[in-house]
Amino acid sequence: MKKTIKIIIEISFIFYLFALIFILFLKPRGYIDDMPFIEYARHSINIFPFKTISTYVKALFNGNMNMDIPLKNLGGNLILFLPMGIYLPLLTKKKNSLKSYSIFMISLLFSVEIIQLITRRGSFDIDDFILNMLGAFIGFIIWKTKPVQKLLNEKLKDLSNHDE
Fold first, then answer.
1. Mean of the per-residue pLDDT values of the chain
2. What interhelical angle do 51-62 and 68-80 show, nearest 10?
């Protein structure tokens, strides 16, 4: 029974990864492909922290933008990597410490931003990185809470008793 649960978790993680890849790299973005890369990069790079975030937060309060845009951007980027904070420590013991998890996520998220820029499937936005990282940390904190750990230990204990 324990093995079945692990397989279900691994399969759900694979589905999550496919959804993540689709959202990050395969979903049409409407960017101009015939623009020279240097020009594209100039318009698609934000290295100033909170520039995009503050624009969207202001838009939420003053209504000068369709509300879907800031909500999807802020909320979507926050939620997108939240499951990673639960899956990685659950599936790999190496990512169970905050230090190793943080190093892995920083590397992963910078790679995502660079790949999106190079493939023109998005932009390199430090604010996306910040929101993705915040979401990943929220997931990690949820994973590390005593109630979640207690529930997990109880379920594993129950499964062990059923296996006997």
1. 89
2. 130
